[in-house]
Structures are given as C-alpha cells and as structure tokens.
Amino acid sequence: MISIIGAGSWGSALYHAIKQKVEGEIVITSRRRRNIEGFVDIEKALESEYIVIAIAAQAIKNFLKKYNLKDKKVLVASKGIDKDELKFLNEIFEEYVSINDLAFLSGPSFAKEVKENKPTALVIASKNMELAKKFKTFFPKFIKIYIDDDVEGIEVAGAYKNVIAIAAGICEGLNLGANAKAALISRGLVEIDRFGEFFGAKKDTFLDVAGAGDLFLTANSTMSRNYRVGINLAKGKVLDDILNELGEVAEGVYTTEAIYKLSQKNNIYTPIATEVYKILYTGKKPVESLRDLLI
Ligand SMILES: NC(=O)C1=CN([C@@H]2O[C@H](COP(=O)(O)OP(=O)(O)OC[C@H]3O[C@@H](n4cnc5c(N)ncnc54)[C@H](OP(=O)(O)O)[C@@H]3O)[C@@H](O)[C@H]2O)C=CC1
Ligand SMILES: O=C(CO)COP(=O)(O)O
C-alpha cells in the first residue's frame, strides 16, 4: 500500500498519477475528510510502508510531531521553508525520519496538467539512491523522473521559485512589460543560485528542471497561485483577501519570510526576496519595490 498525505491539488494529482502505475492499493488522506476515490482516515494511511507528503509546508512540523513516520519510506512533495524554525523541509524531516528513508520530489508540475496526463518532468532527490529509484517506479510514463542526490538544491529551488513568482506576478500586474519580467526571472535565478550555494546546493541543480524549469513555469503563468498573488498585490488588494479568495496555499508568502530572515542572519544578498518581503509584511508599495529592483 502507498499513502498520499494531503488531498489538496497536488496530493490528488499525485494520487491520480501513481494510481495509473502501481498495481497495489493506493490511498489518500487529509486533515479534512473529502469525498474522493481512495480516501481513508489517517490511521489507515499510516499503515503503509511508503508515504507521499503533499501538505502545506508550514503544517509539516506539527504533522510530524503528531504522527509517527519513523521506519516509513517518505517522499516529500511539498515546497517551502519553515518560517518559524527557519529550516528547509529536509532538515525538519531529518529530525523525525532516518535520512536513508527520505526522498524529495520537485520540478515544474502544475497539478491540473498532471491530472490531464500531460508530459511532465520531475526530480526525485535523496541521499539514498536505491530509495530514489524505488520511488521512481511509482510514476507513470507521462512523468519523466530524474534522480539526483542534491537534496539541498532541490529544496532551495522548489521553495525560492515561489517567491520570484510573486515578484513576476507583481511585474505583470503593474504592466511593466515582457522585458522587465525576463529581467526579474533571470536575476531571480541568479539570486536562487547565490542563496543555494550558501546552503551547500549544487549549481547544476538550478540550471535543470527543478531550478530554471520550475522557475520559468511558475513565474510566467496565471496557473500559478504565487504568480496570481503577485498580480493581485499589484492591483492593490490586501494580502488576507487575496489568500482567502485563492482558497489554496501560496507557499511563497511564507517562504518569503523565511528567506528574508535567513538572508539577514547569514548576510546573503537577496534583493528580490527582500522587496517581496517588504511588500508582504511592511506595506511597501509594489510599484516602489519594482522601481527599486529594475531601475
Ligand atoms: N498544486 C500544484 O500544482 C503543486 C503543489 N506543490 C506543493 O504541494 C504542497 C501542497 O499544495 P497543494 O495541494 O497544491 O495545496 P492545497 O491548498 O490544494 O492543499 C493544501 C494541503 O495541505 C493540507 N494542510 C493545510 N494546512 C494544514 C494543516 N495546518 N495541517 C494539516 N494539513 C494541512 C490541506 O489539508 P486539508 O485538505 O485537510 O485542508 C491540503 O491537503 C505545497 O507545498 C505546494 O507548493 C508542488 C508541486 C505542484
Ligand atoms: O509548484 C508548482 C508548479 O511546479 C505550483 O505552483 P503554485 O503553487 O504557484 O501554483
């Protein structure tokens, strides 16, 4: 049995994908009961040897405190950095699960397109190559899986691109043009690389699907929730209203705070994340931030 934990957009898309490939029982669970195929309660889900985590990043620490995943093989599909602990998700998981039992899924993948079986490329990173290869077997043909050992790089890439997507959405919402957006996205990639290097990530990771790939996807499409947050901020909407209307998680909002604090603490130059932080948390006007970044 394989269990997906988190029955939101991404968890249900992963259920849809894995169900097509794996013959045994696949189940899905969530905090709130949902009337969907394969839904079971959390206790039943925790009977599986293989667990896929697709819940909001900020909820993961409390989830791990409450439920015992020790001795499970865990694939983490969430993207974010814990804003209170200032820890990457691999660091949080390593406190509860053996490093050899952990793998991380990332890459350009809108849930909607995965649910339509559209071609998608993803990366599974783990310090245990055998485990990464095992998780790779769960995925159907339309999802091409690359195996990697750069867990730190995958974590930074998946989390940081959401922050740059908010900035790119602001650029779009302010109608600053395609030139400006290309500048933001490419300088965003440089910023992600600089931040990642500090935490031991490999440069190559940021040039590949989980880095540039996910950044180009998310920072240039209204299918992205983070990009839409940016568009709405540019229109002058209040953050709480934007998030309520969205009804789904926009991880970049919380990851921005984590990156801002980590870069202050470690003296890392992160100009785009810093401006997004000022817009989200100090009330700086988006138009002033974009002017400070672009001119
Ligand atoms: N959607 C996408 O295209 C992709 C999303 N991701 C990542 O996957 C993760 C989940 O995103 P997604 O499914 O899209 O978001 P949704 O908003 O659709 O779902 C959020 C999920 O997190 C759970 N959750 C939220 N808060 C808590 C909490 N306090 N305690 C326990 N569970 C909680 C929700 O549970 P409940 O349903 O019970 O409320 C739900 O299962 C995010 O990190 C996102 O970045 C990664 C790749 C693609
Ligand atoms: O991570 C994603 C695509 O790879 C989803 O992006 P959003 O959370 O911005 O919708």
UniProtKB/TrEMBL annotation:
Pathway note: Membrane lipid metabolism; glycerophospholipid metabolism
Enzyme class: oxidoreductase
UniProtKB keywords: Cytoplasm, Lipid biosynthesis, Lipid metabolism, NAD, NADP, Nucleotide-binding, Oxidoreductase, Phospholipid biosynthesis, Phospholipid metabolism
Protein source organism: Lebetimonas natsushimae
Residues engaged in binding NAD(+): 6-11, 111, 225
Protein name as annotated: Glycerol-3-phosphate dehydrogenase [NAD(P)+]
Residue sites binding NADPH per the record: 9-10, 31-32, 79, 111, 225, 249, 251
Chain ranges of the Glycerol-3-phosphate dehydrogenase NAD-dependent N-terminal domain: 35-131
GO CC, alphabetical: cytosol
Role of this protein: Catalyzes the reduction of the glycolytic intermediate dihydroxyacetone phosphate (DHAP) to sn-glycerol 3-phosphate (G3P), the key precursor for phospholipid synthesis.
SUPFAM superfamilies for the chain: 6-phosphogluconate dehydrogenase C-terminal domain-like, NAD(P)-binding Rossmann-fold domains
Binding positions (substrate): 79, 225-226
Biological process terms in GO annotation: carbohydrate metabolic process; glycerol-3-phosphate biosynthetic process; glycerol-3-phosphate catabolic process; glycerophospholipid metabolic process; phospholipid biosynthetic process
Gene Ontology molecular function: glycerol-3-phosphate dehydrogenase (NAD+) activity; glycerol-3-phosphate dehydrogenase (NADP+) activity; NAD binding
Chain residues that bind sn-glycerol 3-phosphate: 79, 107, 109, 161, 214, 224-226
Localization in the cell: Cytoplasm
Catalytic machinery residues: 161
PROSITE patterns on file: NAD_G3PDH
Reactions it catalyzes: sn-glycerol 3-phosphate + NADP(+) = dihydroxyacetone phosphate + NADPH + H(+); sn-glycerol 3-phosphate + NAD(+) = dihydroxyacetone phosphate + NADH + H(+)
All copies of domain Glycerol-3-phosphate dehydrogenase NAD-dependent C-terminal, residue ranges: 150-289
Enzyme nomenclature, EC number: 1.1.1.94
